[in-house]
Write a structure and sequence with these properties.
- By secondary structure, this protein is of the alpha+beta class.
- The protein has 16 helices and 11 strands.
- The chain is globular.
Length: 404
């Protein structure tokens, strides 16, 4: 921080530990930060220094979409952060600013349009039908996470990326190590290097390909000189990791539905409301621990009367934005009739999650298959006995014991 910034009257720095939270409890530290002001200062468990935190819906969208807040500069700084390691590599789309960010996103856009996502719908439904069939054949009790909620998103994102079925277990193992802070920086970094090396080989093999999967699109783009191999690998790693986040999101969704039988009954009795209900569940569930990637102010910017100086790191909280009472009436209530529902569960602006439509598709397929084919589905243990992942950046149940 500059001396000029430090001499101003600033809000106190709040230490935000990596709190282990079970269920769908909202982070109490974030609740306090939201009440203390629209713009506060935080210090996270790793990295160095402090950062601004923006929590109001309009401010979150503004920062996320404002070119005066950049991502690339983060790589040259030891910004305070949740994880002990940087997840994307240099050149990855998560740390690029326009126009490079736009160029790289454009190379894979066909796979994530409505048409591209629809391309995998039938394949995804078939894979899910097989998994649910095996669940029913094996009989209760069962772990819904290991039986369905984990293998299904892995298979779908690997299908979209063009990863052969034989390599999907390795993808899952690497992803879990990358997304966990409990194994330490060295283990996470090693997993990221191994996944990157795998995708580097796969993208090179696909140069000149005319297929529609992501690694083929990137291989062709690398062959044409439109993106570098380093950029292509960084993007595939980020997409693979993001694709598996559906496991945790859907785990929280079903934890909610199984601990709130009234919600599940509504979705069974009125299937037409399911797409809108899934949007509301996406708004409500606390899908991550603390915050994600930061930005750096590239010039002085004022937000709600607070001057953020050039060079200051800034975080936005999409979780907080989704609970802003000025935008969402009674935000602590799950309301399947909520309309409009402009949630930002998939982010906003240039870094909006490219897999948002795919995640919605997977969630809709999971809700349809499990509610319709397993009508007696219920928890096999008390809600408090459901184990949630510890040290994970993306929140979700480690196991979901069920019976029917």
């Amino acid at each position: 921080m500059s001396e000029e910034t430090l001499t101003e009257t600033l809000p106190p720095i709040r230490h935000w530990p990596a709190v282990h939270l079970s269920g769908t409890d909202f982070d109490p530290v974030l609740t306090e930060l939201m009440s203390e002001g629209p713009v506060t200062r935080i210090q996270l468990p790793n990295g160095e220094g402090w950062a601004w935190l923006v929590t109001r819906y309009d401010d979150v969208r503004r920062v996320a979409n404002d070119p005066r807040f950049g991502r690339e500069a983060v790589l040259d700084r030891q910004v305070t952060r949740v994880a002990p390691h940087f997840i994307p590599d240099r050149g990855a789309v998560g740390f690029l600013d326009p126009p490079d960010h736009t160029r790289l996103r454009r190379s894979v856009a066909p796979a994530f349009t409505a048409k591209g996502v629809e391309r995998v719908r039938d394949e995804a439904r078939g894979m899910l039908d097989d998994l649910v069939g095996e669940l029913l054949q094996d009989g209760p009790p069962a772990d819904l996470t290991s039986a369905v909620l984990s293998p299904f998103p892995i298979a779908v994102i690997c299908e979209l990326l063009g990863v052969p079925p034989a390599d999907r277990h390795s993808m899952h193992t690497w992803t879990q190590l990358i997304l966990s802070s409990s194994h330490g920086k060295e283990v996470s970094e090693k997993a990221k290097r191994e996944m990157s090396a795998y995708f580097s080989d796969l993208v090179r093999l696909r140069e000149g390909s005319t297929a529609e999967d992501v690694t083929s699109l990137l291989g062709a783009a690398v062959g044409r000189g439109e993106v570098t191999l380093e950029e292509a690998v960084g993007l595939t790693v980020l997409l693979q990791i993001g694709g598996e986040a559906v496991t945790n999101n859907s785990g929280q969704m079903f934890y909610l539905l199984l601990t709130r039988p009234d919600l599940a009954r509504r979705l069974r009795s009125d299937p037409e409301i399911r797409p809108r209900a899934i949007d509301e569940l996406l708004r409500y569930i606390p899908h991550r621990s603390a915050v994600g990637l930061s930005r750096i102010a590239l010039e002085d910017v004022e937000i709600r009367g607070v001057r953020i100086r050039a060079g200051d790191p800034v975080y936005v909280s999409y979780l907080a934005a989704n609970r802003d009472p000025d935008v969402f009436c009674d935000p602590e209530t799950i309301d399947f009739s909520r309309s409009p529902n402009p949630h930002v569960a998939f982010g906003f602006g240039p870094h909006y999650c490219p897999g948002g439509q795919l995640a919605r598709l997977e969630s809709e397929l999971l809700v349809d298959a499990l509610l319709d084919r397993v009508p007696g589905l219920k928890l096999a243990v008390s809600p408090g006995q459901v184990p949630f992942r510890k040290g994970a950046l993306i929140r979700g149940p480690e196991a979901l014991p069920v019976t029917w």
